[in-house]
Specification:
By secondary structure, the chain is of the alpha+beta class. Helices cover 25% and strands 45% of the residues.
Length: 121
């Protein structure tokens, strides 16, 4: 559960204008946040038994620079603290070498079946 990098090529569907979070054709903040969560989820995935997964519980993020359509962006999640089932990550998003976003993200380890039983009532 150390680190993982997720990558995305910005397409029209990933833009603020398309997502409704803004009106410009640049990477939407919600898409960047989802990429950050994906990196943290994948950082934990290989370390867990098949019956367990992680769910996002908290994210605090800053979106520092815009990225145009066609840009390749990545998010690297690094585990900074594990407290039982609570995992805290530092996540950095980049376009090339340029930092475009930073986040603190907390995920919780859950049993898949028990979690879904609670969701379904």
């Amino acid at each position: 559960m150390k680190s993982y990098t997720s990558t995305l090529v910005v397409e029209e569907q990933h833009t603020a204008a398309k997502m409704g979070s803004g009106d410009l054709p640049v990477l939407a903040t919600p898409v960047m946040a989802a990429l950050m969560e994906n990196a943290a989820m994948k950082a934990a995935a290989d370390e867990l038994p098949a019956e367990e997964t992680t769910v996002g519980g908290y994210i605090e993020t800053s979106h520092l620079c815009p990225s145009p359509i066609g840009a390749t962006v990545s998010a690297t999640a690094e585990l900074i603290k594990a407290e039982g089932k609570k995992l805290t990550y530092k996540v950095t998003a980049r376009e090339g070498e340029k930092v475009i976003g930073e986040a603190t993200h907390i995920r919780f380890v859950v049993n898949r079946e028990k979690f879904m039983k609670k969701v379904m009532g």
